[in-house]
Design a protein that fits this description.
heterodimer; A: 8 helices; B: mainly alpha; 0% strand
Chain lengths: 157, 160
């Protein structure tokens, strides 16, 4: 199944065309940096250590919903990159760990966004809010670490 | 010039700092530091750039937003530079000889950084109203393109 994905016409075109592959790689890195950077900032704001001149709601209004569009692009480019070396990625435990961390990070971020509606405009931030924001932050940094480890430890990607 | 840089590079990667990062398992953590720092840096830049372009809620002016994010913008920069320097120290000679790296650090980063400083400064006046002047919007767009160029060069480093 994974061989047929990797050998699909469009996937092979991306793999074999240098500039096309480069564009997909660059898109993946650029969009994920921006997404993680903006969401991490929101988490830091909820933790009360960044950007205290604004309320949480004010900051959130500046980066939603476009940052999730950016995230969607990061995922899309990620899927393409995965497809070009599917056979190599699938057996790697580290790769699936990265996917798990990303899933958990998305969950935490969704909880942050839902919770923000309650504590977005209030002057004091409940401890549960800070906890979920911290978890979200740690998980996104963890996702970066997992991604970096795949390349470092296995040499894939 | 390149010879001089190469001998500096050779010295740096032979230090216990460079050797330590290169040979122990700390390298992925250093890379994560660089990526996390640069993510926050890009994020804080792009939020203001997009606001100048009219994206994001109009309740706050771009100038207010820029001021609110100023501290973490530069903390992020410091983290990115620290992580970057540590990465560089591990395999300095390879980086110095790498055309993509030369392009990134020698041309693109200084260009993007100077542009960022100008935009950040100018946003004080440009961003006073809810809707920024055309020159502000073009400048904000250029800033994002410049940082995209920096990331592009960085992504190409392993190819050389």
């Amino acid at each position: 199944m994974w061989e047929s994905l990797q050998q699909a016409g469009w996937v092979e075109t991306v793999s074999d065309t240098g500039w096309l592959y480069a564009i997909v790689s660059i898109a993946h890195y650029f969009t994920l940096f921006i997404f993680i950077g903006t969401f991490a900032l929101l988490d830091l704001r909820i933790l009360g250590i960044a950007d205290r001149r604004q309320t949480i709601a004010q900051l959130a209004e500046q980066l939603l919903p476009w940052n999730w569009i950016v995230f969607a692009l990061a995922m899309l480019s990620g899927v393409v990159l995965f497809a070009t070396a599917a056979v190599d990625y699938v057996p790697l435990g580290l790769f699936w760990l990265k996917m798990l961390i990303i899933l958990l990070a998305m969950l935490a971020s969704i909880l942050v966004q839902i919770g923000m509606r309650k504590w977005g405009e209030s002057p004091t931030i409940p401890r549960s809010a800070k906890l979920i924001a911290l978890v979200s932050l740690v998980l996104w940094v963890g996702a970066i670490l997992a991604a970096v480890d795949i390349s470092y430890i296995t040499g894939v990607g | 010039m390149l010879d001089f840089l190469q001998s500096l590079a050779k010295w740096l990667e032979s230090t216990s700092l460079g050797t330590g990062i290169r040979t122990t398992g700390i390298y992925p953590f250093v890379q994560t530091l660089h990526f996390t720092g640069l993510s926050l840096w890009l994020g804080t830049n792009v939020i203001v750039d997009l606001r100048l372009l009219g994206v994001g809620n109009q309740r706050q002016t771009a100038a207010e937003l820029s001021r609110a994010l100023w501290a973490w913008n530069w903390i992020a920069f410091a983290l990115a530079v620290l992580g970057g320097f540590l990465l560089f120290s591990a395999t300095s000679t390879l980086y110095v000889a790498n055309p993509a790296f030369q392009f990134k650090l020698g041309l693109l980063v200084p260009l993007a950084l100077i542009w960022h400083l100008v935009v950040q400064r100018r946003t004080e006046t440009w961003g006073r109203e809810a809707d920024a002047p055309a020159v502000a919007k073009i400048s904000a767009l250029i800033e994002m393109l410049l940082w995209l160029c920096v990331v592009s060069a960085a992504v190409e480093i392993p190819s050389y």
